[in-house]
Amino acid sequence: MQEEQLEENMEEQPQEEKDSPQDAQAIRFVILGIPYSIRPSEELTVEDIDVLITYVKNRVDSYSQKGYDETRIPMLVAFDIANELRELQKFYELPINRAIDKLKFVLEPE
């Protein structure tokens, strides 16, 4: 859900802000010379966006410092983050699934 929200809120080019007070002001940033903006929401706060921007920029910078071509860096960062997600899922899902299996065994009627 957050990925969909991030995609919905992410704009490739900065746009003028709406005048409505209920519309949050977009957070603007540049990565590899390309401007982006993300509009905060209930699920994605300004603080969340700041953390994500810093995280991605640090990843991009680490590949830039290693001398990778700027056209390849976004894909390398994407695979790196996807691998992190996979590792976290394995780390957390296995114990949770074991606990669920134990609970099913205990709670099953005889």
Describe the protein.
By secondary structure, this protein is mainly alpha-helical. The protein has one domain. The chain contains three helices and three strands; from the N terminus they run αβββαα. It has a three-stranded antiparallel β-sheet.
Number of domains: 1
- How far is the first residue's CA from the last residue's CA? 39 Å
Q: Give the overall shape.
A: elongated
Strand order of the largest sheet: 1-3-2
Low confidence ranges: 1-5, 11-22
Biggest sheet details: 3 strands, antiparallel
Provide a count of the helices. Answer: 3
SSE-based structural type: mainly alpha
Task: Label this structure with key terms.
single chain, 110 residues, mainly alpha, three-stranded antiparallel sheet, 3 helices, elongated, disordered N terminus
List strands and helices in order, with pairings.
Layout: H1 2-9, E1 10-11, E2 27-31, E3 34-38, H2 46-65, H3 73-107
Antiparallel strand pairs: 1-3, 2-3
Summarize the structure.
The chain is mainly alpha-helical.
